[in-house]
Amino acid sequence: MTRRIAIIQGHPDTTARHFCHALAEAYLKGAQSSGFEVRLIDVAAMDFTLLRSKADFESGAPALSIIQAQDMLRWADHLVVFFPLWLGGMPALLKAFFEQTFRPDFAFEYGEAGQVTRKHLTEKSARVIVTMGMPAWVYRWFYCAHGVKALERNILAFGGISPVRTSLIGSIENLSEAQRLRWLNSVQQYGVKGR
């Protein structure tokens, strides 16, 4: 069976290419070389508003770009999320994207008294690839990777996605060309394996 992969490019800057973009392209190349079907969601290119109320989250009409993204997420067996760490977590635009897409009746269902009774995104897996200025070990061990854990637990797993694997790429500004190439090759191999 052909693996279906949705790449979520979460870098919010549309004015320049960043290492997140090169990493996503390396993953895409690897996945396509294995014959996997791959679709890209470029969050920075999407047009949607911020959610401002519980009513909007639960029953507001999503923008067309969000509906299209939900269709891609529903279609995929595996999600790969790329983003730079900003103030310890994902950029606000990517968080807004997840708030818009992981709504009730798409990612989960409410039961009585607001309890989640059913997760809709089971049988999907994910990989989260994060670039950051600080050393990755400092973020993982001193800060307990809190922002990435919030994405894993409170968004992806909340919708039923499991397992979620994480790759943290630290000291991004100080990486040598050889180190960048090693990361690009590693991420391309994740794509080859569809992981």
Key terms for this structure?
Rossmann fold; five-stranded parallel sheet; 20% strand
Question: Care to describe what's here?
Answer:
The chain has a single domain (4-193), classed as Flavodoxin domain (Rossmann fold), CATH 3.40.50. Helices cover 40% and strands 20% of the residues. Helix 1 runs parallel beside helix 7. The chain starts with a strand and ends with a helix. It has helices spanning 19-33, 54-59, 64-75, 92-101, 136-142, 146-156, 177-193, and strands at residues 4-9, 37-42, 78-84, 108-110, 116-119, 125-131, 164-169. The chain has a five-stranded parallel sheet, with helices on both faces. It has a two-stranded antiparallel ribbon with strand order 4-5. It is of the alpha/beta class and 195 residues long.
Biggest sheet descriptor:
5 strands, parallel
Shape: globular
| Unreliably modeled segments | none
- Overall pLDDT metric: 94
Which structural class matches the secondary elements? Answer: alpha/beta
Helix percentage:
40-55%
Radius of gyration: 17 Å
Fill in the CATH topology. Answer: Rossmann fold
CATH architecture: 3-Layer(aba) Sandwich
Order of helices and strands: EHEHHEHEEEHHEH
CATH superfamily: Flavodoxin domain
